[in-house]
């Protein structure tokens, strides 16, 4: 998990061939060495209001995000953490990657509408 800035810095510091194209950076990241070779690596790059990029098994896919009116956007602090929390909440329940990303986008959308990384009321995510 990372945002577009983190992915660009990672690509630069690792001297990856493709530094500008986030789809290519994500694919290169999936091929980095890892401990468990029985499972493929998933790379997810968030881009604020732009689509989320998923890279897995040599393929990238974009997922749209919910665009809020500017008057609803209060504070972006914690949006990435909320995304990861929503994603993992679905992953541990055995949900599809598409549903995991959808829940991550939902969680981030909730957080950016509040000051600080806070949440009021019940979590009412429904795909």
From TrEMBL:
Coiled coil: none
Note describing how the cofactor binds: Binds 3 Mg(2+) ions per subunit.
GO molecular function: adenosine kinase activity; ATP binding
Alphabetized UniProt keyword annotations: ATP-binding, Kinase, Magnesium, Nucleotide-binding, Nucleus, Purine salvage, Transferase
InterPro entries assigned to the protein according to its UniProt record, in alphabetical order: Adenokinase, Carboh/pur_kinase_PfkB_CS, PfkB_dom, Ribokinase-like
Superkingdom assignment: Eukaryota
Locations listed in the record: Nucleus
GO biological process: AMP salvage; purine nucleobase metabolic process; purine ribonucleoside salvage
Record domain Carbohydrate kinase PfkB: where: 1-120
Pathway the protein contributes to: Purine metabolism; AMP biosynthesis via salvage pathway; AMP from adenosine: step 1/1
Cofactor requirements of the protein: Mg(2+)
Active-site residues, Swiss-Prot/TrEMBL: 81 (proton acceptor)
EC number: 2.7.1.20
Biological role stated in the UniProt entry: ATP dependent phosphorylation of adenosine and other related nucleoside analogs to monophosphate derivatives.
Record note on quaternary structure: Monomer.
Family: Belongs to the carbohydrate kinase PfkB family.
The name this protein goes by in its record: Adenosine kinase
Native species: Graphocephala atropunctata
């Amino acid at each position: 998990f990372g945002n577009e800035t983190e992915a660009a810095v990672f690509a630069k510091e690792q001297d990856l061939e493709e530094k500008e194209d986030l789809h290519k950076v994500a694919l290169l990241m999936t091929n980095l060495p890892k401990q468990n070779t029985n499972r493929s690596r998933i790379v997810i790059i968030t881009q604020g209001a732009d689509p989320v990029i998923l890279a897995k098994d040599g393929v990238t896919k974009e997922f749209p995000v919910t665009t809020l009116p500017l008057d609803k956007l209060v504070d972006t602090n914690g949006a990435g953490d909320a995304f990861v929390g929503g994603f993992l909440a679905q992953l541990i329940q055995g949900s599809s990657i598409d549903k995991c990303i959808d829940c991550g986008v939902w969680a981030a959308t909730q957080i950016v509408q509040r000051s600080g990384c806070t949440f009021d009321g019940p979590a009412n995510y429904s795909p």
